[in-house]
Write a structure and sequence with these properties.
Blueprint lengths: L3 H12 L10 H10 L5 H13 L5 H6 L2 H7 L6 H18 L2 H4 L4 H9 L6 H12 L8 H11 L5 H12 L3 H17 L27
Length: about 220
């Protein structure tokens, strides 16, 4: 099976540095990670822009805000009523814990367990928050990564195995874990989409399912 290191290098050469996550502070990353579920980043940017206009990008202000105002601000992301309620609950949790700075003092395994205990926060969201808000060495397993590795190997791979595959080469390297996730998303949108564009893929010669591919790297 192709090494993660090889995938990383090929995608970086093809797409260049992605400079993720686009946010002004850790709390904005947390908000964005929750809002981006089942929607596009462009929709999230619209929602965050409106939250910023209303001064709602702090735990205190977001938790105190009227629910209908939060719903209006994030309408672009879909499921806005559910996400608004979850956002306010999350903001209250962060506030009660002592703010984002208090989160940063918690060790990574405990922080991940805490995040997973919050409504609407699954493994993908928790790991994105760990990686991009708190600079922890987390592996973000999302549909883009699952699709890419499944095509490269011609076999479905469990999320735990995907984490091991990434960690084998990038364990502990926050900067490259950050870049890898962003590159996989960029590649998934541009090339390895649900209907793939194999002719332009930099990983084609190592891909088990791509048209014209199939060798190991």
């Amino acid at each position: 099976m192709i090494r993660c290191e090889t995938v990383y290098g090929s995608l970086l050469e093809r797409h260049g540095p992605q400079d993720w996550w686009p946010a002004s502070d850790a709390f904005e990353v947390i908000v964005g990670a929750l809002l981006v579920q089942r929607t596009s980043w462009a929709s999230v940017e619209d929602a965050i822009g409106l939250l910023r206009q209303h001064g709602l990008l702090s735990p205190d202000e977001l938790h105190r805000a009227p629910l209908d105002l939060v719903e209006t601000c994030i309408r672009s992301v879909g499921f806005h009523r559910t996400k608004a309620a979850r956002l306010r609950a999350l903001a209250g949790f962060v506030r009660d814990l002592g703010g984002v700075a208090a989160f940063a003092q918690v060790d990574t395994p405990a922080l991940r367990r805490t995040l997973l205990g919050l409504e609407g926060v699954g493994p993908e969201t928790a790991d994105a928050i760990l990686l991009y808000a708190f600079d922890r060495p987390a592996v973000v397993v999302d549909e883009y990564l699952r699709r890419l590795v499944k095509r490269l190997t011609a076999a479905a791979t469990a999320d735990t195995d995907l984490r091991c595959w990434v960690s084998r080469d990038l364990a502990g390297d926050v900067d490259r874990l950050n870049e890898l996730h962003a590159l996989v998303v960029a590649h998934g949108r541009e090339t390895c989409s649900p209907i793939p564009h194999c002719s332009g893929c930099v990983l084609l010669t190592a891909c088990r399912t791509g048209i014209g591919g199939g060798s190991d790297a």
